[in-house]
Write a structure and sequence with these properties.
By secondary structure, this protein is an alpha+beta fold. The chain is built from 6 helices and 10 strands. Among the domains are: 42 residues, no CATH class; 58 residues, no CATH class. Helices cover 28% and strands 19% of the residues. A hairpin with a 5-residue loop joins strand 9 and strand 10. The N and C termini lie far apart (86 Å). Keywords: Metal-binding, Nucleus, Zinc, Zinc-finger.
């Protein structure tokens, strides 16, 4: 049997075996085995770039999000960090992210790796923190009763100094009412950042300086409303399923509108007739939050539904 390699001069020429049935001329590519590998010293593109936990970082999130020794450009974007939880499931290029601060890294874990223990604890912490903004609409009867003057109220003296009226609500309650209004009407948060809105709010509450809920605070409130809504819907559907003797009764609809590769709006709704023969329609419209790879975090635009017949 002929060998695959034959030596000529100082070089090694690659030839094919006659058993293969393919003839090859002596002008084929010559590989000099004595010559060093031209790629020696260069890191293959398939290897994960060097990375490590940021120095002086104490938060637990940096155990999963490491800083790259050198920034990496991918798809016309420069990334500075890499997520270790993404690596087993994705290519290292798709595991790149941006995390300038601890909060940015936590946003990525909470939105992408929800099953992670640290992400679940962080979500619970945010939900608990958002609970202080909980507000509820007062019944019309209570509001009318509060507006009526008391018979025992003392009449002010004629020369009494006029007092400035102020709303009997805390700043947290004001933030809660603003967030509740935006969520229920499906309005964007930037409506509250205009000068006209601040002047309107200052005139309503009687305070010259008003504090609008920050982007982070609004997202925490929104996440809490979103979680509560999902729980209420699940509970309602399970109860109806039992009332109908576990008969299939739901008509589910899913819609997707995409305006870019990193931002899309997902809509989900269900329609059914309950055990009282009343039509019910529950709609949940939500914008998918950015996973941190694009830098800015998007805000869910709308999360609403009617749980009342």
């Amino acid at each position: 049997m002929r060998g695959f390699f034959s030596a000529e001069s100082d070089a090694q020429e690659l030839t094919t075996s006659s058993a293969s049935g393919v003839s090859c001329s002596s002008q084929d590519t010559v590989i000099d085995l004595a010559q060093g590998d031209p790629d020696d010293g260069e890191e293959p593109t398939t290897e994960v770039p060097a990375h490590a936990r940021p120095r002086n970082a104490t938060n637990w999130v940096w155990d999963y999000v490491h800083r790259l020794e050198e920034p990496v450009a991918h798809n016309n974007t420069v990334y500075t960090h890499i997520c270790l939880l993404c690596l087993p499931k994705k290519s290292w290029q798709d595991s790149l992210c941006k995390a300038r601060h601890t909060s940015n890294a936590k946003v990525h874990l909470v939105s992408i790796h929800k099953e992670n223990e640290g992400a679940m604890k962080e979500k619970q912490h945010r939900s608990k923190r958002a609970s202080r903004f909980d507000v509820a609409a007062r019944p019309k009867e209570d509001m009318k009763r509060a507006a009526e003057p008391s018979e025992k109220a003392e009449q002010p003296a004629k020369r009494q100094k006029k007092l400035t009226w102020r709303a009997l609500v805390s700043r947290d309650q004001i933030s809660g009412h603003i967030a509740r209004w935006l969520i229920r009407d499906g309005l964007p948060r930037n409506m509250t950042t205009t000068t006209a809105f601040r002047e309107f709010l200052a005139g309503v509450i009687g305070e010259p300086i008003v504090i609008i809920p920050s982007h982070k605070t609004y997202n925490d409130i929104l996440d809490k409303h979103y979680s509560n809504f999902k729980k209420d819907v699940s509970k309602l559907i399970v109860e109806e399923f039992k009332e109908l003797f576990e008969t299939r009764f739901l008509n589910m609809e899913h819609d997707l509108w995409s305006n870019s590769s990193k931002s899309c709006i997902v809509g989900a709704s269900c329609s059914f007739i309950n055990h009282h023969w009343q039509p019910r329609h529950i709609a949940l419209l939500a914008e998918v939050k950015n996973d941190g790879r694009g830098g800015r975090r998007s805000t869910r635009q709308r999360a609403e539904g009617s749980l009342r017949p």
